[in-house]
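pinned: reference chain
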Amino acid sequence: MAPNDSAQITGETGETGGVPAGRRRAARYVVPVAVAGITAATIGLVPALASTGDPDLPKISAAELIEKIAASDTEQLSGTVKITTDLGVPSLGGLGGSAAGTFAPKGGAEGGEDGGSAEPTGRLMELASGEHTLRVAADGPDKQRLSILDSAAEYSLIHNGDEVWAYDSASNEAYHAKAPAGAAKGSEKGAKGKDRTAPKDLPATPQDFAQEALKAAGDTTSVTVDGTARIAGRDAYQLVIKPKQTGSTIGSIKVAVDSKTGTPLKFTLLPSSGGKAAIDVGFTKVDFSKPAASTFDFRPPKGAKVTEADESKAAGKDQAHKAPKDAKDLKGLGAEPNVIGEGWTTVVQLDTGGVGPAAASKDMPAQAREFMDALGDKVDGKFGSGTVFKTRLVNALMTDDGKVYVGAVTKDALVKAANAAK
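pinned: its structure tokens
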């Protein structure tokens, strides 16, 4: 078993625990998950996947393992992924793409008049809660397939060249779009600068989550190698990422990295409050050989209802319920957001220009008011008073004068940020 080996990240020097400057490029891939933006976005703990004991692997430092991930050139694979999300919010599985109403589409996944049940954005939002089994395949930047498996149905999203198809077998509905011009040169960069173009709005594989977690270095993060593991029949190193700051709702992130290819095989995010994982996603089976070309072929079955992307956009569905990815996407909620703090304790401040929950509930019937009060915790401070609404990762403080503070931070950290902003 590889011994523990830590790398302390120092933002000023760009060096990683004594690692030469030549490794600084790889070190920039280590940061906390941008939970508020994803995920916003953006998943409890399941038994170790295909674990058969800890393999004996050569020693490796944290910086070397980060370099191995950054240098990975895996472009071909297929396999089965199990993803479990427990954010402490109601399951979205029955909502078919609406996120607790906030990002709800006009049509919905049950056959709305706009995009129908096959429209991808809403269906992928379902991965933000509950337990799901996915079948995935990739063959370079031009071919990817992701299928969400249910007990009696399957939803598939296929990218093949300049064509994007989605198909819902339960409703026999399909969605068709053209991949953006130059999609193979898109904005999502893979290892060694190679491009990934899987059309999706939420991460769905260990690689996706790891890329969100490993983006840049800072002095708020510590990284260690914590032994080895056996994942989906593969030998892997365990990379552990932790915040140095107090006040984050993220306790630690563990990434199991394939010892041969450098490909992340499993991603687990544990909240600082303890208990089972908030996000657990990993391969149960994986094959790094080239998938059959037929994997990426699709023609809608006879009788299937097909919705073209242009029709869906005209109806406003494609943009109706996309989760905001970063602060820029939150401008529509009011004034331009203000970012408070840094690293793991970053808080986004918004001014809705309206009234807070206390004033909004003033005219409600007593029972409705009691229900609203039960959803959050009343707090006060220099900022005034307000209510904190909590999940296991992302918390939000809504003040009575209409300001909102959101972050992957504790209730106390939100109150501190609100006091500082005041």
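why pinned: The first strand starts at residue 5 and ends at 8. The two ends are 51 Å apart (CA to CA).
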